[in-house]
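Feature request, filed as a ticket because there's no other form

It would be nice if the structure record came with a short human-readable summary line next to the tokens. Right now we just get the raw output. Example of a typical job, pasted below so the devs can see what we mean:
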Amino acid sequence: MEEQFILRVPPSVAERIERLLNESPSDDKSLDLSFSDNGRRGTFSIGDEQFPASLFDLPCIVESHKTYDDSVLIKTADVGQMIMVRNEGDPAPEVVEYRHGLTPPMRDARRRRFRREPDLNPELVRRVERDLLNIMHGGTAENFDILPVWQTHLTFAE
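Raw output as currently delivered:
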């Protein structure tokens, strides 16, 4: 498996990267990507210009493939994160997950395609968890009713 990432850049930066890759290599043109200590914010440099960059989690894993003969695809990586480069004036998103994926059909994918979390009362969950831990440690549950055997079955008068 190879190490790969998705780099999403503004159109003006994409044109500069394409020109840089198509021209013969020179020392004054360079690409650099560096991140701060938290690993989510960073700086993308092309030549002497710098752009803010952010690392986002994608809503699902994207497979990457390559081919040697234009007919057989070989899986090379699973990509789960994207580096987004912004123009200097654009605001930085505050979220960790980029909720729209890479293509238009994946717009708001987590809400539309994945199961929602059940609506549970947090106090009920805490109480049941506490009771289960008590039972596992040899104790008893706190909130329950004990019914005698004769009240659990229906009896018929003779």
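Something like this underneath would help us a lot:
The longest strand covers residues 49-67.
DSSP finds four helices and five strands in the chain.
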